[in-house]
Amino acid sequence: MFQGSRTLERLNLEPFAFDPSRLDAVIVTHAHIDHSGLLPKLAAAGFTGPIWCTGPTRDLLEHMLADAARLQEYETERHNRRRDRAGEDPFDPLFTAEDAAAAFALCRTVDLEEEFLPAPGFRARLWNAGHILGSASVELEAGGVSVLCSGDLGPDNKAFQRDPQARAGFDHVICESTYGGTVREPLAMEERRRLLQAEVEAALVRGGNLVIPAFALERTQELLLDMGRLLSDRAIPPVPVFIDSPLAIRITGVFARYAHELEDTGKSDIFAHPAFHFVTDVAGSVALNSVSGAIIIAASGMCEGGRIRHHLVHNLHRRDSTVLFVGYQAQGSLGRVIMEGAQRVRISGQDVRVRAQIRSLQGYSAHADQTELLAWIAEASPIAGSLFLDHGEQEAQEAMRRELQRRFPQLNVRLPEIGEEYLLPPGEPALRSATGRTDLGDALGRDWQNDYAAFASSLKQDLARLQSDRERKEAIAQMARILQSYAAHKERRRRG
């Protein structure tokens, strides 16, 4: 599922580039919604085959897909109310709760490192990816060609998870590159907790709330692991910690069921600390508007939806509040806009001034950095054909390619574009058989809607700085004339 700018997310509405009813099977690497979110749409479009994944991934998908469908239906209803008032036709949600249930019913589980036959003519094996609970890399073999797909790879020494694994020697490898341009200093868990302790203490000294946007899956549970330890050790004041995400609460229940398999838990219920308050209903969430001096953890991690937006509206304008980012923020997302220093943002139709302290803590990354990605690729080598880099912004991918070419000068490295197709011969570089989309350049970063939101948020203040109402009316008229002139110019060029 595409995530980021509104232009990029609109790609989710386009029909699949293949006939879903002819698809034999799907293999899911993990339950994060950017890797699983279109499964309900796939089922609605006619796919009826098995969806292969690990047992923990299946248990997580039950909640992730249902929540995604609920959000789709809610957002569609909200937007359709606006469209109705404007006299515009309504539109349907991307998928429904019924579609999500149909997709979940297709899930089939397989253990890590167990060979299975996902479809006629294919052999497969899942390897631990160390990213989140249940995550896997996928080994595929068909027609004498072997392929390894990394999925998302976790860093070394990540909380809960073992380090990534895979066998060596493939024709082709597809590797993620989220942090392909970043080399992080090694950070032990105890050091990460000390950094979190410092952020909590500084936020509480300011007197307001510490608001933490966090992914419901894995990031929230890691934060609770560290918060619980700091509270038990009396390293931070005994303040209430509100987990305001129904999905995160359900996901935490899945983690509790698998606690005996996870590292760093001490085989105990780490999520039962008396300072933790799990907020399930809307009334409880709204009640947090009057709270101060508390820690509020809410989804979504990139601030694109969920209850975190409500808490940002009520805390961003407060000088005594702190917003702490602990995860990746995609280009074009609200979280990225705030992190990059926006003075004003637009949230759910409201212009919000940013006065709160904006902080970030990188020790919670669930992705391998450049050094760890290179080590994983080296362990999967030799690669007889091509190495594809995906799941990364252009700068990260280019940095990763440069380092790979320096270390492995004979390796054929590809940076595929959306929509490109390749033939994968055994033992030889991949052959591009179809070109990609040339119309998506503006969708892969900050789009016009990000720029418009920033412009609209500052417009009222800019107009207020003018000396008189007459000057303001003149400025508005000039802006209107510029837009009309630009539109007319473009129309003439199209015709000419």
UniProtKB/TrEMBL annotation:
It comes from the Bacteria. It holds the Pfam family Beta-Casp. SMART domains: Beta-Casp (SM01027), Lactamase_B (SM00849). It comes from Alteraurantiacibacter palmitatis. Residues 220-338 form the Beta-Casp domain. InterPro entries: Beta_Casp, MBL, Metallo-B-lactamas, RibonucZ/Hydroxyglut_hydro, RMMBL. Coiled coil: none annotated. Residues 3-208 form the Metallo-beta-lactamase domain. Keywords: Hydrolase. This is MBL fold metallo-hydrolase RNA specificity domain-containing protein.
